[in-house]
Specification:
Number of helices: 2
CATH topology: TolA/TonB C-terminal domain
Signal peptide: 1-27
Order of helices and strands: HEEEEEHEEEEEEE
Low-confidence stretches: 1-34
Organism: Dyella mobilis
Mean pLDDT: 76
Largest sheet: 5 strands, antiparallel
Radius of gyration: 19 Å
CATH architecture: 2-Layer Sandwich
Shape: elongated
Protein name: Lipoprotein
Helix content: 10-25%
Keywords: Signal
Strand content: 35-45%
Number of strands: 12
CATH superfamily: TonB
Oligomer: single chain
Structural class: alpha+beta
Length: 177
């Protein structure tokens, strides 16, 4: 029973990571504003929690996601599509404690606008806390689950695209409808 539940919990975590929500910022769709899409990524070398057969992991899925606003200063030139990969550090309560973007220190003004948009939106995201529970024996010999919330991180790629001076969104590889 516990093994099946652990498998089910793991599958739920994987499926939650694949879900994409398209939440528009206020005023989205006007020439000066827009939103962007995102998808979860798993870059090479990413370390994951090691959960033993006596442990159960649950949570770590997004509850609230805010889409970045397309940088208004970039719309007049309608630059080529750009992706910003960000590592979201999530604390034990499910709130974002930090957003890291590789190469940010070397980013030019153009790229920094997109990074700033990603950071402003991602700081508002909220996740179900990651709970790592373990089967333990009580004083009476019965087993029960005991555990606590753990911090975790997830990497997302945010996609910005513009057509004829208007922002466009993408979910995965298909244009949003």
């Amino acid at each position: 029973m516990a093994k099946g539940f652990g498998y089910l919990a793991g599958m739920c975590l994987l499926l939650a990571g694949c879900a994409t929500t398209s939440t528009s910022a206020p005023g989205a769709g006007t020439p000066a504003e827009g939103n962007a899409s995102w998808h979860q990524a798993d870059p090479a070398g990413t370390e994951h929690y090691k959960v033993s057969h006596e442990q159960l992991a649950s949570g770590s899925f997004p509850l609230k996601r805010i889409a970045p606003v397309y940088p208004a200063a970039e719309l007049p030139t309608c630059p080529a599509p750009i992706d910003i990969q960000a590592l979201l550090i999530v604390d034990k309560t499910g709130r974002i404690s930090e957003v890291r973007v590789d190469g940010e220190a070397q980013a030019g003004e153009h790229r920094q606008r997109y990074i700033d948009a990603v950071k402003a939106a991602a700081r508002q995201w909220q996740f179900q806390p990651l709970e790592i529970d373990q089967w333990v024996k009580g004083a009476d010999g019965t087993k029960h689950l005991a555990g606590e919330a753990q911090p975790f991180s997830q990497t997302y790629v945010f996609h910005f695209e513009c057509h004829d001076g208007r922002p466009s969104t993408r979910i995965g590889d298909a244009p949003a409808t």
